[in-house]
Known about the structure:
Radius of gyration: 25 Å
Low-confidence stretches: 1-21, 252-259
Strand content: under 5%
Number of helices: 14
Shape: elongated
Largest sheet: none
Distance between the termini: 71 Å
Amino acid sequence: QPETNEDTNNIESTSTTILKDKQYTTPEELHKIKAQFNILINKGDTSIETEIDKYLVTYPTDIDFLSEKYYIQILNNKTEESYHYLQELIDILETDTKLLNNPDNQPILLKYIEYNIQHNTLSKIDSLIEHQFTEYVIYLYRSLYYRSKDNINKAYNNICKYIEHTVMDPYGYLYKGELEYHKGDYKKASESLSRSLQLDNSLLNSHIILGQVYKDLGDVESANMILQDGLKYTTKNIEIEAIKYNIAENYYKGGCRYK
C-alpha cells in the first residue's frame, strides 16, 4: 500500500530517540523504521548509522538496511566502504532473480555498473550489462562498456539510443563524436562534437577530437581555431600542443599552406 502524506508526516515526526529504544520485529514496524531511516538519509543525516548497524546484526542480508548503510558511506565520502556494501548488495541480488528483477533495486545495479566502468573492472558487470533496465542511462553505460572492449558498433548503437532520450547532454555527443571519428565518419564526428561544444564549450576533449577531425580533413584553419579555443580552459595541454605541432610540421613546410 502506498503511503499517504499523513503516513509520511507521522513517520517523519517520530522522535529519533525512539529508534534507540528497541529492535522492531514485525513487518509493519520494520517498514516504518526503514522509511524513517530513508527520510533522514535523504536529508543528509548520517547520525543514524549506528542504529542501522544494530539492525544489520539482526538482518544482515536485508536489502533496505544494506542500501541505507551504502548511502551513508556515500554521504561520508567513504569510497572504499561504500563499495564494500555495494558489492554485498549485488551478491545478494544476483542470487535471487525476484530481487534482481525488482525495479526498486535498479538504482543499486546502475551504481554498481557505473562504479566498475569508472574503475575499468568490466568483468564484474559482464552478467549485468544487458540486464533489462527502465532508466535510459544504461545506454550510456553500455556504450562505455563496449567501447572499453573495442566493440565499436555496439558502443555506437547504444550511445545513439542514449542521445535519443537526452538530447541536451554534451557528454553524449562527445562520446558519439569520438566513436564516429574512430569509425572514419569525419562529417558526422564534426557535427556531434560541434553540438557537444554548443552545449558546453569547456569540454576539452571535444576540442581535442574536433581539432583532430579538422586536421585529418585538411581544414587547418578550423583545426587551429578550435584547438586554440580549447586552450582557454587549460594553461597547457599536451595533446593540443602535439596536434598543433603536427599541423605545423605537415602543412606549413616551406611556407606552403595545405590546400
